[in-house]
Every structure is written in structure tokens, then in C-alpha cells.
Amino acid sequence: MAFGGRAEQAHVLFLSSCGCCLGFSVAREKRRHASEFPEWGMRGRMKQLKRPERVWLGLLMEPAASQGDGKTYTLKELSKHDGTNDTTPALLLGLNGKVYDVSAAANFYGPGAAYSKLAGRDSTRALARASLRAEDIPEADGQAVDASELTESEQATMRSWEQRLAAKYKVCGRLI
After folding, report:
1. b vs e for 113-143, b when ≥16 Cβ sit within 10 Å of the residue's Cβ?
2. How far apart are alpha carbons 96 and 157 in whole angstroms?
3. Longest pairwise C-alpha distance within the chain
4. Per-residue pLDDT of the chain (176 residues; tens, 9 = 90+)
């Protein structure tokens, strides 16, 4: 596969006939643009694999997003996790029906931080529109955002945010 680039390494897993997983590295040629090759990270470098189960037959596959411990949150319950309540210290953020524990990034989502408006809220519309306006963040007594009401471009932006959050934070439940 010559695409006019330099060779890079990719880790591949094979399931042998005895059911064992065998892993090895193979050289793959970098395509002309990183966007043509989804498993390439920024500047065409292979992303560091923390979990080999993401690789199957040479293709990067994200594991199914965990729904946490099966806990469900209403907007009212989620609003208690904005960092201002001492009895619920976890910082939670809702996005597209999932609830992420963003406590590790209190410097971004904690009280007084740049994105504090998103903590304890359904931030689907706000992140999809790259907006921190009040009309894009539903109140605790409102309804969760239905992603189907977003434009195609906004849905693509929302999916990008979902991937970022899923890579950094644990899904601790779902938003109803």
C-alpha cells in the first residue's frame, strides 16, 4: 500500500484457531492526509494504545461505551453534581444521554472555572454549538436535549466531544 508517505507501525491482534490472542506490529504506510486514515492521530502519528482490545485485525475499534453502574440521572439529580454541593462532590456532565464523571478536571469544570456552566447540566446543545449561552444549557427543571433536533454539523461536533470525553472520563450513568 504505497500512498506516498513514510511507514508507521500499527499493533495488530489476531485470534488464533485455539482462541488465543496474538499481538504483533506491522508496518503500514501513512496516507496522504491523516483524515483518510482514521486510526492515525495528530500529525499522522499512531495513537498510543492503552488498551489492546481496541485493535482488531488492524482496525481501531472503540469499545462500546460503558453505561457506568446503570445509574440513571434526571436533570434535577444531575444539577446537584456541579461542584457547589458538599454532599455530592463529584462533578458530572451530561452529553447525548450519557453522564460523565469529570471530577478529574475540576480546573475546567469546577466552580469558577471556564466551563463551570456545563457541570451538573446536560451540555449536549452547548458543546454541539460551541456555546456557553444560557439558552443552550437546559435548566434542572427542563428536559434533556434530544440530539435529533441538532443540525448535521452540530451532531458531528457533538460526536467529536463524545469521543473526547469518553477517552478521558468514566461514563457513570445515563441521562433520562
Report:
1. bebbbbbbbbbbbbbbbeeeeeebbbeeeee
2. 12
3. 58
4. 444 444 444 444 443 344 444 444 434 444 444 444 444 444 444 444 444 444 333 333 344 445 566 899 999 999 999 999 888 889 999 999 999 999 999 999 999 999 999 999 999 999 999 999 999 999 988 889 999 999 999 999 999 999 999 999 999 999 99
Q: Which string of DSSP letters, residue by residue, matches 36-102?
A: GSTTB-GGGPBPP-S-GGGEETTEE-PPPPP-TTS-EE-HHHHHTTSS--TTS---EEEETTEEEE-
Angle at 36 between CA 30 and CA 41, to 5 degrees: 65
Among 63, 79, 38, residue whose Cα is nearest residue 171: 63
pTM of the model: 0.63
